[in-house]
Amino acid sequence: MKIGIAADHGGFELKEYLKKFLEDEGYAITDYGAYSLNPDDDYPDFVIPLAKAVSEKKMDKGIAICGSGVGAAIAANKIKGIRAALINDHFSAHQGVEDDNMNMLCLGGRVTASSAAEEYTMAFLLAVFSGLARHKRRLKKIADLEK
Q1: What share of the chain is helix, strand, coil (3-state, %, to 5)?
Q2: What sign results for the dihedral spanned by CA atoms 74, 17, 21, 88?
Q3: Distance between CA atoms of 84 and 25, rounded to whole angstroms?
Q4: 144, exposed or middle or buried, with CB in 10 Å at 0-12, 13-18, 19+?
Q5: pLDDT reported for residue 61
Q6: Rounded mean pLDDT of 17-41?
């Protein structure tokens, strides 16, 4: 599985932590930045390229981190085909994939502990879309909006 990861200054430390954690778990990680801690950077500069890569199937899934995770989720969801959510609990991390085919996980670097980030990330990565008719029907309604 190809996973992209991106963060601004608010999520930089957690991004670096998760990148190493995931590489140690055997995942191929592509880092979309930031590549250094710069308090003046802007999350769209990193989250949008990651979201485009996920949308274009260059990455299987994406993880976007900013200070709260809110801005990352807003930016990612502007890209056609992206289903991103700010996750703060285990259930939503896997349910978002199982029911809503979520393809981007958003986390808050200033509010999510590293152990919780590991838990949510693994739940996200290991979950599989159910493909149930009701979920496909709902996703089609969202895809129709993007047209």
Answers
A1: 50, 15, 35
A2: negative
A3: 23
A4: exposed
A5: 98
A6: 97
| Catalytic positions | 66
Distance CA 89, CA 102 (A): 15
User: What's the CA gap between 95 and 91, in Å, rounded?
Assistant: 6
Considering the chain, what is the average pLDDT of its residues?
97
Tracing tokens 């989720």 back to the chain, one arrives at 73
Q: Mean pLDDT over residues 29-41, rounded?
A: 97
Mean pLDDT calculated for residue range 98-120: 98
Query: Is 58 within 8 Å of 2 (Cβ atoms)?
Result: yes
Out of 3.30.1360.20, 3.40.1400.10, 3.40.30.10, 1.10.340.30, select the CATH number for domain 2-146: 3.40.1400.10
Residue 2: pLDDT band by 50, 70, 90 thresholds? very high
The rounded distance, in Å, linking the Cα atoms of 141 and 19 is 34
